[in-house]
Amino acid sequence: MYKDLEGNTAIVTGASSGIGRAIALRFGQEKMNVIINYLGNEQEVQQMVSEIESYGGKAVGVYGDVTSEEDVSKLVAAAHDHFGSLDVMVNNAGIENEVPSENLSLKDWRKVLDVNLTGTFLGCREAIDYMIEHQIKGRVINISSVHETIPWPHFLHYAASKGGVKMITETLALEFAPKGIRVNNLGPGAIDTPINAAKFSDPEAKKGVESLIPLGYIGRPEEIAAAAAWLASSESSYVTGITLFADGGMTKYPSFQGGHG
């Protein structure tokens, strides 16, 4: 746990499931104030609010679409109205779907880019604008992917969006370092989340993914949340503009493990 996070206020987009949910709950364990952004089941979000409060944190659920300027602006306003500040912005909301690149429709391309890339841009812009206005040395954490660096056939739009998130992060980190605002990427590998549930329910498919991971197992959302808490804390005070890969070594060319090649 990081004592300096207690009482800080964070927004987590796409926080009602998967990695976003784990990050929001971990922030609750740090006794932070959390804006839980969601598009899904409000009842599940209220259960999260109760769980965060049981840890000693505070939370409010805020419905909103990260592709909407108005909705993202409302998230920042909610942080200010409920808790009086915004210290940490986590741009987590993201989607993917598998389509061979030659069959990828403009509609599918735009949908993934709108959520993953434009949503991250809007979250960064609104949060940083607030931090500058209120002279807050805040932290922005963008949830990228190993596929900001690993090509992924049949997921062209997803890989392109995450490559874009990498450059958003690095550019903003350079631009706003003089203001004391740190901007970093967190790049998960294969994680056991609802978006991957169907794939990992097939033993052969799961085994195939595990073969790509030097540590040999599918990661848990809580392991990503732990990395997010570190990036939000003062323990990472000299870290900005990086991608922290939490991937079990997936980005380290696992096919060469054992001296092959």
TrEMBL record:
Write out the GO MF terms: glucose 1-dehydrogenase (NAD+) activity; glucose 1-dehydrogenase (NADP+) activity
**This protein is called what?**
glucose 1-dehydrogenase [NAD(P)(+)]
Organism classification, top ranks?
A: Bacteria, Bacillati, Bacillota, Bacilli, Bacillales
Please tell me which top-level EC class this enzyme sits in: oxidoreductase
Which superkingdom? Bacteria
Which keywords fit this entry according to its UniProt record? Oxidoreductase
Q: What is annotated about its quaternary structure and interactions?
A: Homotetramer.
- Family annotation (Pfam families): adh_short_C2
Q: Known PROSITE patterns for this protein?
A: ADH_SHORT (PS00061)
Q: Which reaction does it catalyse?
A: D-glucose + NAD(+) = D-glucono-1,5-lactone + NADH + H(+); D-glucose + NADP(+) = D-glucono-1,5-lactone + NADPH + H(+)
Q: InterPro entries attached here?
A: NAD(P)-bd_dom_sf, Sc_DH/Rdtase_CS, SDR_fam
Recorded E.C. number(s)?
A: 1.1.1.47
- Which NCBIfam families has this protein been placed in? PRK07231.1, PRK08936.1
* Source species of the chain: Paenibacillus solani
Name the protein family.
Belongs to the short-chain dehydrogenases/reductases (SDR) family.
